[in-house]
Amino acid sequence: MAQQFPDIPAVGEALVSHAVNPWVALAYLAAGVLFILALRGLSSPSTSRAGNRFGMAGMLIAIVTTLVTHQLASLPEILAAIAVGGAIGWVIARRIAMTDMPQLVAAFHSLVGLAAVLVGWAAFLNPEAFDLLVVTGVSSNQDLVSIKTAIGPVSRVEMALGVAIGALTFSGSVIAFLKLAGKMSGAPILLPGRHIINLGIIVAILGLTAAFAMGEVDNTTYFAAITVLAFIVGFLLIIPIGGADMPVVVSMLNSYSGWAAAAMGFTLHNTAMIITGALVGSSGAILSYIMCKAMNRSFLSVIAGGFGAEAGPLGDGAKTDRPWKRGSAEDAAFLLKEAENVIIIPGYGMAVAQAQHALREMGDVLKGHGVNVRYAIHPVAGRMPGHMNVLLAEANVPYDEVFELEDINSEFAQTDVAFIIGANDVVNPAAKTDKSSPIYGMPVFDVEKAKTVMFIKRSMGGVGYAGVDNDVFYMDQTMMLLADAKKMVEEIIKHLD
Fold first, then answer.
1. Nearest-angstrom CA–CA distance, 381 and 372
2. Contact 454, 425 (CB under 8 A)
3. Phi, psi of 346 (to 5 degrees)
4. First to last CA, the chain
5. Dist CA 228 CA 105 (whole Å)
6. Membrane-crossing residues (predicted)?
7. CA–CA dist 106, 86 (Å, integer)
8. Mean pLDDT of 15-40
9. I want to staple 55 with a disulfide (CB 3.0 to 4.6 A). Which of 38, 122, 176, 390 is the partner?
């Protein structure tokens, strides 16, 4: 009679049960609800503070629940790491200039991607600590039972995808950071055969993931190859994207970081990470779609190249030999004071000059003279989604005076003054008329319909991020105000009083 060995796990059975304590599940559910409320709050400047608080509360619940319910090797070390990271984040948040916010967001995305890579490799190298082992074979010899274990196929897929997305997010975010910070050219860098190269690498990653998941052993070579190729493809996907597409890139990388976190959540059997990652991933994807729609471009066309990708890194630049009219702060103040309706269109130049507070003061003075003042925000103005909204909110511009493109564009025909401060591509009529322009098809403000256009920029030699000239500079009703944006607005205020 064969000897019976009780309690021997069957092949494919996990060695550890992943049953979740109902109180833990409830805590993670509460954290997830708070994250949803955070996203809802952040959708509007007027509720953004409350949204931030909801997000902080949800993260606190998730962290405390994880610390209390898991066996930790060294709680003091973990708490010390949290303290150090929190202190660094607090200092950065206090000191960061609003002009540097886009590259800060890109840098933070890179850290999320790197964290996913490190967690994935930690789980691969020490699967026992993460409860990832399943039985792959059982053999017996009299009283001796030998159990063979390995990481389960499903866990391998989760790990591979999490590491791949995380690595792609990291290297892509590093390139985005360098472009946004001006440490690398914002022009597209086009490699010969880049589409074939990228597609080939992605196919190779998927093939290696399948081989890694179906193998009988946990193959380090496959896992390392997936990681390296993902780092490479993240780099290759972002370098061809021009500066004008950077807002979409930022939201796209935000989405990637969320999916990386969600994949790692499945690997760690952590509901909070799955919920949070899914929320970030889906919201980032939706935002990317909205941004692409605002530029009348497809998502695939953005990640495949960017503005000017086929024609070259830049347009022809400004044609300063054409006739144009220069005005002074005194001239601008007179026309603004005599106007009934003024629409202000801010852009990245306002952010660079830190002119938002002076601009709000000018608006208040004009309102004191009975002028109807409104602000028009283009979805891709600045270097990240919502960049101009954040700046105006920082300057305490009333929310009911700020309008999106589709809500105010029809008003320019009845507007006395269109006041453009630091914007360029988003008011360029070439997007509507010139099929050879790299920004053709992007919805822009109809500023040319206003009675008077005032355009603040540093010099006539500069062009927008897309690198193309702007016919608005040379219109009969346009007054060019060439100066630092903040200094010019401050001079206008002096002449308004």
1. 23
2. no
3. -85, 155
4. 106
5. 24
6. 23-42, 54-72, 78-97, 104-124, 159-181, 193-215, 221-241, 272-292
7. 18
8. 82
9. 38
Count the Cβ atoms, other than its own, within 10 Å of residue 436: 9
Among residues 276, 254, 251, 253, the alpha carbon closest in space to that of 265 is found at: 276
Helix, coil or strand: residue 310: coil
Helices and strands counted in the chain (H then E)? 17, 8
| Distance (Å) of CA 294 to CA 256, 361, 404, 408, 444 | 21, 30, 11, 14, 9
Rg (CA), the chain: 27
pLDDT value, residue 147: 67
Cα 313 from Cα 128, distance rounded (Å)? 51
d(CA 162, CA 172): 15
Strands 341-346 and 144-151, by their bridges, are: unpaired
270 and 153 within one domain: yes
Q: Do 180 and 243 reside in the same domain of the chain?
A: yes
- The verdict on 293 and 339 lying in the same domain is no
Beta partners for residue 346, in sequence order = 421
Domain count, the chain: 2
Distance of CA 433 to the CA centre of its chain: 30
H or E, element range at 134: strand 133-141
Other CB atoms within 10 Å distance of the CB of residue 468: 27
Q: Is residue 46 part of a domain?
A: no
Q: How much is the average pLDDT of 338-357?
A: 92
- Whether the pTM exceeds 0.85: the reply is no
DSSP-derived letter for residue 85 is H
- Element housing 289 (H / E): helix 271-294
- Note whether 342 and 421 are same-domain residues: yes
Cβ contacts of residue 469 below 8 Å, gap of 6+? 315, 316, 317, 318, 319, 430, 463
The verdict on 300 and 340 lying in the same domain is no
Structure tokens at 378: 């283009």
What pLDDT digit, counting tens, does each position of 360-417 carry? Answer: 999 999 999 999 999 999 988 877 778 888 889 889 999 889 999 989 999 999 999 9
Q: Retrieve residue 23's tokens.
A: 């109180």
pLDDT in tens, 276-325: 899 999 988 888 888 787 777 777 766 665 544 444 434 455 555 678 99
In a domain, 440, yes or no: yes
In 295-428, which ranges are continuous DSSP H helix?
299-304, 329-338, 348-353, 356-368, 387-394, 405-408
Return the structure tokens found at 375: 């602000």
- Tokens read off for 286: 């939706």
From the list 394, 342, 392, the residue with the least C-alpha distance to 369 is 342
Tell me which residue range forms the domain holding 415: 329-496
Residues 348 and 273 in one domain: no
Closest CA to 229 of 257, 262, 199: 199
In a domain, 181, yes or no: yes
